[in-house]
Amino acid sequence: MMFDEQGSADVVAASFGGTPDARLREIITALVRHAHAVVKEVGLTPEEWAAGIRFLTETGLACDATRQEFILLSDVLGVSMLVETLANRAVGGLTESTVEGPFHLVTSPERALGDTIDEVGAGEPCLVTGRVVDAAGAPVAGASIDVWQADADGFYDVQRPAEVPSGNLRGRFTADGDGRFWFRSIVPRYYPIPTDGPVGRLLAATARHPYRAAHIHVEVTAPGVRRLTTHLFVEGSPYLDSDAVFGVKESLIRPFAPVDDPALAARHGLPNPFRHADFAITVRRS
Amino acid sequence: MMFDEQGSADVVAASFGGTPDARLREIITALVRHAHAVVKEVGLTPEEWAAGIRFLTETGLACDATRQEFILLSDVLGVSMLVETLANRAVGGLTESTVEGPFHLVTSPERALGDTIDEVGAGEPCLVTGRVVDAAGAPVAGASIDVWQADADGFYDVQRPAEVPSGNLRGRFTADGDGRFWFRSIVPRYYPIPTDGPVGRLLAATARHPYRAAHIHVEVTAPGVRRLTTHLFVEGSPYLDSDAVFGVKESLIRPFAPVDDPALAARHGLPNPFRHADFAITVRRS
Ligand SMILES: [Cu+2]
Ligand SMILES: [Fe+3]
Ligand SMILES: [Fe+3]
């Protein structure tokens, strides 16, 4: 079979027909067909193709040990979120998942229930409480809850290594026998994804903002339970309806409600008033 | 609009709705729709997505001043050939175009009509003749014909810089007043595209060979004429029906016919017998 415009995708797909791994064959065939469809649909010119090659090359060269520009590209194209959503279709009242994001770089320090994850002390104090249960409503005693978040200026510890101790605003908690967990923190701020690389230039060229709505990352693991990677979003945050990586799901937004209760504040070691968010989490037994 | 599985492409496409440049908006919207279609069609898993990110990253990191692995990827997926074909739809008997390929790195030395481009003298001697005309059949007097080719072992000069002079098997000729050109060379061999990078691993994983059918690159330019980038393929070469970059078009294959004619050989300064290919070229006045 020789190449021509009409049959281009067929010819190339056929060349992959001998791929031993059936799954790889399926994926590459779909890739070829849709790639050729894009080129034909828009009538891609050689100059535009060359610009695309340059963009991919710069994206690759922007990657190093601490930066993954291709994941960022996948994020802003909604591909990461789509893959995550397909992998974790929430059924029967399970808590929905969302993207892990690029800031789960360091292992969160182990902390005791009720501890604060804020080692700096700047920001609006808050109490986060929650309970991990399974689909039948039974508590997942001893579940591990890993949380990490940006500070009140929108930065993660790894972005300010000179000013902030590593592990700040991160913590791993072990739920009690009733599946409950609670800890102190500050209210996170919305923040921009990195904009100083090719993906940032893409956002600028397309008049898109780089901001993520304010959130606390939450990862729940426990023996016999499917891992849940999700966010607790701050109700009222800017960008909830235009998150740069499409990570927001309605079901994951919670009020960080103001609380004026000196006795409760004192019991938790918090200044009064403070804010309080509760995150009930339902996971799937596997 | 918030993200969900059904509407994922719509939500992401809408985020690009404010792109000031209408053409960029069109291209990125098509990219988003087809990318989401691929992910859904195959049900891409997070592990497969991560493998894809790794592949793209390695492809980017393989690029440097003398190597363009993303172009190679585009080549083996038939995308380069499709873009080239769309840009140069041959109508009304024009000579078809094909990919330029990665070996047009050095400027070909100027040579006189009838000269040899073979500075080494290993291989089967051949005579290449041709004539450049326009769609009306009128000669393109003084057209510039740039040719470059692999040697009898399948290597370009730039691949063996220690053994072969730069410019070997390359030449720029100026057609005579009747649009005619002729030069001496050796019959090129088929050759593999570079296989020591990510694209080579992709070919291996998909049981595809890396070979290109034997060819001489030909680029024709002249004032008032649209540039033509094409190949002269050697009839009977292996891989004509499975060229690794899909560059072969039936209309570009020519016999390299054996000639036993001592007088003709002597006239051209060739040993007898030799081989002869004739390439009639029709270009478009612009
Ligand atoms: Cu498609
Ligand atoms: Fe985050
Ligand atoms: Fe070549």
TrEMBL record, chains A, B:
The keyword Glycosyltransferase does not apply. Residues 128-156 form the Intradiol ring-cleavage dioxygenases domain. Pfam families: Dioxygenase_C, Dioxygenase_N. Its cofactor is Fe(3+). One of its GO terms (biological process) is catechol-containing compound metabolic process. Keywords: Dioxygenase, Iron, Metal-binding, Oxidoreductase. The keyword Mitochondrion does not apply. One of its GO terms (molecular function) is catechol 1,2-dioxygenase activity. Belongs to the intradiol ring-cleavage dioxygenase family. This is Hydroxyquinol 1,2-dioxygenase. It comes from Dactylosporangium sucinum.
